[in-house]
Amino acid sequence: MRRAIENWCAERGKPIERAANDYGGGPGAPAIADDADVAVIAAHATRVAIDMLIPRDPSTFPNSVYMVGLAKTLDFRPAL
Questions:
Q1: What are phi and psi of 24, to 5 degrees?
Q2: What is the pTM of this model?
Q3: pLDDT tens sequence across 10-67
Q4: What per-residue confidence (pLDDT) applies to 70?
Q5: Which residues contact 9 (CB under 8 A, 6 or more apart)?
Q6: Are 15 and 6 in contact (CB under 8 A)?
Q7: Is there a cis peptide before residue 27, judged by omega within 30 degrees of 0?
């Protein structure tokens, strides 16, 4: 599925960069998401879950895969 998503994006001129490290675990710092990113993902996942529980035809989310865009990097520099 990941390869299909990467191909879809590449065909539209927006290739997805692969992460520099594997998130399966290992030495090094963990990947960190801030509260706002977690809230965005949780909100979208909740909407999809509720849609699955409501007997609705057609579904609000008729496709098998959705992409949620977040910031490329986090910038924690203090505002001056």
A1: -75, -5
A2: 0.54
A3: 999 988 777 665 555 556 655 667 788 889 899 999 999 999 899 888 888 888 788 8
A4: 74
A5: 15, 16, 67
A6: yes
A7: no
Q: Is 6 exposed, middle or buried (0-12, 13-18, 19+ CB in 10 A)?
A: middle
Quick one: which of 50, 44, 49 has its CA closest to 66?
44
Strands (E), 1-80: none
Torsions phi, psi of 33, nearest 5?
Answer: -115, 140
Task: Tell me how far CA of residue 25 lies from CA of 19, 29, 43, in angstroms.
Answer: 13, 10, 26
Please give the single-letter amino acid code of residue 57: D
- Angle at the Cα of 54 from the Cα atoms of 48 and 59, rounded to 5 degrees: 60
